[in-house]
Amino acid sequence: MTHDEVLSSPDVDVVYVPLPSGVRNDFIIKALKAGKHVYSEKPHGGTVAELRATINLAAERNLQWMDGTMWYHSSRTKAMEERLFRSDDLGEVRRVSASFTWGGGGLVDRAWVEGGNGRTDPTREPMGMLGDSGHYPISAAAWAFGWRLPERVRATFVKFNSLGAIVECEAVLWFPNGGRAVIDTSCLLPHRSQFEVVCERGVLKVDDLVGGQGRSGNFGAYEGPFVGSSSFVVGDHLGKDDVVQVEPCDHARCLVREFADLVERVKGGGRADPEWSKRALVTHTIMCAVYESAMRGGTDVELVREEASGPTTYVVGEESFDDIPTGAWK
Known about the structure:
three-stranded parallel beta sheet; 9 helices; 25% strand
């Protein structure tokens, strides 16, 4: 079937959209206008305003939107949320460090790094590795801080390939009340897929966020069905760590199951769940702000809101913008 045949078919309720983010939004809008629920890959494409308009279209038509961030849906994440948000054991989140790096040590070759893969070809992935793999540490930081936007971001290190694609990036995010996060991504460093959430009275740690395979070196977890994500670490204020075991799961399968259940709810007369659109918009906003900073040589980007649910103004030096990325560095 062609794309148009899929969208016009009355037998199709849902479309999965793994197109490169550089061209994805147009198809998603066509799908929503055709009345299809959308499971979109990440990272998201376009500016913040463009993604917001797409998400709003889904809401107006009561169509379920969800992106492909698998780790949100695992039994481990639900257990961590109980400890972090619904118990006072650890206290308020103060600091997050999160990383997703891979490719170093010869896992990928120079041709791959120099645009031979969609992640390193800016015509297919405009934000390069910041988009493709940086989505995970950004999402971990946003999750830990309760889906609040940071007040300011700064790309502290960025490396480009010869095509202008980001192949390495580190950034600092400053959140309200003294919260801060450090994120990094790279296709030139060893495999690290981890986060640490530092709270007032303890820490929460994961070292296999994206694949769920522990520190086994098993890259098969990224290439097919895999049951894992079976533990996390909780450390106390003295530094004593306890490993918490949870039911292993295939978090990609958990995502699909939850998405299917939400679609069935809508088909039964219920409303689409806006939680997943909210998460997508927050992660994309942070990513766009980091990208703006990276493309401007590490300039601070401030995110200013007069009201918690109001529009965001982006301040770069003496300039203010209603949307990002601006492209003003070109």
